[in-house]
Amino acid sequence: MNKIGLGYDIHRLKKGRRFLLGGAEIPFKKGELGHSDGDALAHAVCDALLGAAALGDIGELFPPSDPKYKNADSMELLRNAFERVKNAGWRLTNLDCVIICEKPKILPFRDLIRGSLAAALEVSQDCIFLKGKTAEKLGQVGKGNAVEVYAVCLLEK
Ligand code: MG
């Protein structure tokens, strides 16, 4: 049996914060604002995996209202979510993501991010892909005030 999952996230970008994408730190003057470390890609991937397995969503499992998750390492949340998915008997076939931000360019960091996600999800890097896009200067993402992420995954059992 195969199941598809879709995840989405958006975070404001602010000076003085780390810009984390799938656990990889991207050198940039701004980073994601969030209750956790703000890793928008990790959050979107979490929701894609949990959605495909029908196991809930990130806000439900790791509520931002819980002080335990203040400044949480989002890759730890992702590993925790993936553990639940694996325990339900699922195997990750592939994951594809779109990262939308005006700056910086994502392409130079693509393999770094893929490697980081592949390690956390215990798959080869070939199973993971991502594309960087801009918002053509439209909206808050286009003004450089936010980063938006879509992730889609396929699970198999
Ligand atoms: Mg988030």
Task: Give the topology, please.
Layout: E1 2-15, E2 19-21, E3 24-26, E4 30-32, H1 40-52, H2 58-61, H3 74-87, E5 91-100, H4 110-121, E6 128-133, H5 139-142, E7 146-156
The protein binds magnesium ion.
The CATH topology annotation reads as: 60s Ribosomal Protein L30, Chain: A
Structural class call reads alpha+beta
Number of domains: 1
Uncertain spans: none
Radius of gyration: 15 Å
How would you portray this structure in words?
This protein has 157 residues and is α+β, with helices and mostly antiparallel strands. The chain is 30% helix and 32% strand. It has helices at residues 40-52, 58-61, 74-87, 110-121, 139-142; strands at 2-15, 19-21, 24-26, 30-32, 91-100, 128-133, 146-156. The termini are close together. 42% of the residues are buried. The protein has a single domain (2-156), classed as 2-Layer Sandwich (60s Ribosomal Protein L30, Chain: A). The model has no long low-confidence stretch (mean pLDDT 97). The longest helix is centred in the middle third of the chain and has 14 residues, at 74-87. α1 packs parallel to α3 (74-87). It is built from 5 helices and 7 strands. The strands form 2 sheets. A 5-stranded mixed β-sheet has the order 4-1-7-5-6. It is globular and about 40 Å long. It binds magnesium ion. Residues 9, 11, 34, 40, 43 line the site of magnesium ion.
Distinctive features:
two-stranded antiparallel ribbon; 30% helix; binds magnesium ion; alpha+beta; 60s Ribosomal Protein L30, Chain: A; single chain; 5 helices
How would you concisely characterize the structure shown here?
The chain has 157 residues and is α+β, with helices and mostly antiparallel strands.
